């Protein structure tokens, strides 16, 4: 697997799907009586799904689309057949307000590691459908555990990005039976709290009635100033932010005690220029709380690290898994 990094036309575009996590704060200002995530109308849903389908064309060929019924709703997975020999499939968990298409740049190199599932997070814009309230962190772990249990395999290498990293860690500290390893890519609410400045700056971007440029501006800020262009994944994510009403609990910070109790291998990848936590604090926490973990810092990376360094991430994951028995 090559270690060189070629220019990535979708660098910022991947960021859009991982940086929107603070919108949950503003979601409380836009409550409706519905207890589950939902679209604000058919027009917004159709706009999102049209962009979703168009963006999905950039992904490699899908071997299967699988819908798993859980107590909280139906969870959509896509399976991709890899050429590598990983001991279990990788499951890719995306960031807030995004879905499977944001992994377009990552899948080619990750498929050299092994088979891959992508998942549309329950309660987020995507093709998963929430039909029961998710009220706390235990519920978040429960739906993910049930969804994985509905797949053919009995063990998985979880790869979580941003809030997807929180989802993966939250599952591992509560119901780790199906988790073989964890890879946490610049996760939020795991190794440090979110800076107040980032939370405050996200609020205007999270209000659906404000101009699209406000959401684009925040997403560019968190991607290290990378420009935002009007392409299918950008349209998909922006329309999800505008038209989907999240009804998810604010994630709780994973405690150091919980992290220290993990009895499985962990790879932590920290972006050195992330604005979603203090990178130095996050690195120190990972090294202190997970003494057996592999911690990698990418000094020049923003929170859009998976779009900036997809081949490097895949190489680090391949090396990490190769050292597992």
Describe it for me?
With 325 residues, this protein is α/β, with parallel strands linked by helices. The protein has a single domain, classed as 3-Layer(aba) Sandwich (Rossmann fold). The chain contains 13 helices and eleven strands. Strands 2, 3, 4, 5, 6, 7, 8, 10 and 11 form a nine-stranded mixed β-sheet that branches. A two-stranded antiparallel sheet has the order 1-9. α1 (11-18) packs parallel to α9 (232-243) and α5 packs across α6. It is globular. 50% of the residues are buried. GO terms for molecular function: hydrolase activity. InterPro entries: AB_hydrolase_1, AB_hydrolase_fold, AB_hydrolase_sf. Keywords: Hydrolase, Membrane, Transmembrane, Transmembrane helix. Residues 90-315 form the AB hydrolase-1 domain.
Short overview:
The chain crosses the membrane at residues 12-30. This protein has 13 helices and 11 strands. It is α/β, with parallel strands linked by helices.
Q: What characteristics describe this protein?
A:
alpha/beta; 13 helices; Rossmann fold; two-stranded antiparallel sheet; disordered N terminus; nine-stranded mixed β-sheet; 37% helix; 325 residues; globular; 16% strand
């Amino acid at each position: 697997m090559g270690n060189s990094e070629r220019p990535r036309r979708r660098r910022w575009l991947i960021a859009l799907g991982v940086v929107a996590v603070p919108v949950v704060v503003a979601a409380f200002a836009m409550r409706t009586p519905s207890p589950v995530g939902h679209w604000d109308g058919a027009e917004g849903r159709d706009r999102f799904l049209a962009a979703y389908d168009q963006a999905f064309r950039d992904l490699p060929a899908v071997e299967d689309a699988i819908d798993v019924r859980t107590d909280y709703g139906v969870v959509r997975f896509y399976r991709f057949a890899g050429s590598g020999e990983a001991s279990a499939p990788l499951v890719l968990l995306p960031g807030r307000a995004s879905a499977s298409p944001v992994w377009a740049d990552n899948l080619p190199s990750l498929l050299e590691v092994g088979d891959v599932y992508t998942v549309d997070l329950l309660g987020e814009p995507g093709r998963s459908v929430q039909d029961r309230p998710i009220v706390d962190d235990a519920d978040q772990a429960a739906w993910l555990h049930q969804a994985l249990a509905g797949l053919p395999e009995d063990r998985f290498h979880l790869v979580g990005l941003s809030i997807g990293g929180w989802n993966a860690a939250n599952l591992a500290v509560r119901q780790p039976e199906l988790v073989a390893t964890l890879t946490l890519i610049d996760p939020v609410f795991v190794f440090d709290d979110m800076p107040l400045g980032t939370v405050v700056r996200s609020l205007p971007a999270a209000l659906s009635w404000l101009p699209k440029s406000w959401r684009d501006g925040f997403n560019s800020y968190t991607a290290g100033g990378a420009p935002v262009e009007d392409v299918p994944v950008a349209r998909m994510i922006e329309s999800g932010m505008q038209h989907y009403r999240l009804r998810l609990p604010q994630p709780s910070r994973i405690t150091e005690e919980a992290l220290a109790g993990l009895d499985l291998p962990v790879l932590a990848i920290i972006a050195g220029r992330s604005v979603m936590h203090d990178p130095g604090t996050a690195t120190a926490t990972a090294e202190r709380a997970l003494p057996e973990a592999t911690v990698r810092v990418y000094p020049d990376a923003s929170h859009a690290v998976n779009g900036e360094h997809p081949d490097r991430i895949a190489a680090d994951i391949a090396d990490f898994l190769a050292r597992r028995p």
